[in-house]
Design a protein that fits this description.
By secondary structure, the protein is mostly helical. It is built from 11 helices and no strands. The protein has a single domain (about 55-260), classed as MetI-like (MetI-like fold), CATH 1.10.3720.10. The protein is globular and about 75 Å long.
């Protein structure tokens, strides 16, 4: 690679970084504006919008509601995705490609189509709109992402680990929980955090399957219908900061676990 090419690649990289970060920085700054309208110039600054996020019972309730949905749907997705990955990894049988394709299908279906399908299915099986309907749709949508990361991790698992466990008298059930599951911990943390963020941020499925209590994205959408305001910027910034903290924690945890001698 020539010097000019390297300079060009670096310029493109930093241009992309600026393209991503400038809108986020503007969003954060507008949350400090002492006015109900978005725009420059900012003549005075205030923390009222950010303090109001934690003082607004509706916003806090929507955050907690979204968090509960994200946690439960992620737990279900982790269990289902890990089970399918273990069942498919290292085995060749008729229909394996079909099973894998069906398991990955929810990830490639457009969100609106997926939400309509879930809504129709919920009506057919008699499930009322609300929290459990949202959890069901989020869990199924997140399974492919867990499946991919777990299968990638399983592909690096030395066969000698399982053979050693069997030589020591462990049955497949014990070997899975004592050998395979600890080895999968980094991928489960990464997949779990990714699924939580997807669920917490999901709007379409939450909108179609939600009941009277809105999730945070649905609440933000409802507030946007009356116009953009610094309040929405403040809510978005708080969520962004919490998301960044969770992502950094997950990345550090995965790195530490991957460097452990027994991993």
């Amino acid at each position: 690679m020539t010097r000019n090419t390297r300079i060009l690649m670096q310029c493109l990289y930093w241009a992309f970084v600026v393209y991503l970060l400038v809108p986020l920085a503007l969003m954060m700054v507008m949350g400090f504006k002492d006015s109900k309208f978005i725009g420059f110039p900012i003549r005075s600054w205030t923390l009222d919008w950010y303090l109001g996020v934690f003082g607004d019972a509706q916003v806090v309730s929507a955050m907690l509601y979204s968090l509960v949905i994200a946690l439960v749907s992620t737990a279900i997705a982790l269990a289902m995705g890990t089970w399918i990955a273990v069942a498919l990894s290292g085995r060749a049988f008729w229909g394996r490609a079909l099973v894998l394709g069906l398991a990955l299908l929810p990830a490639v279906i457009p969100g609106v189509i997926s939400a309509i399908a879930f809504r129709i299915s919920a009506r057919v099986i008699g499930m009322d709109p609300g929290m459990w309907a949202i959890i069901w749709s989020h869990a199924i949508h997140n399974v492919p992402f867990v499946l991919l990361v777990v299968m990638a991790r399983l592909s690096t698992l030395p066969k000698s680990y399982g053979e050693a466990a069997r030589d020591l008298g462990a049955d497949p059930f014990v070997a899975f929980f004592r050998v395979t599951l600890p080895y999968l911990t980094p991928s489960l943390i990464g997949g779990g955090v990714f699924c939580m963020l997807l669920s917490f941020d999901d709007f379409v499925r939450s909108f179609f399957l939600g009941g009277y209590e809105p999730t945070l994205p649905v609440l933000i959408f409802a507030k946007l219908r009356s116009g953009m305001s610094p309040e929405i910027n403040a809510i978005s910034t708080v969520v962004l900061v919490l998301t960044a903290i969770l992502g950094i924690w997950a990345e550090r945890s995965m790195r530490k676990l991957s460097k452990r001698p027994d991993q």
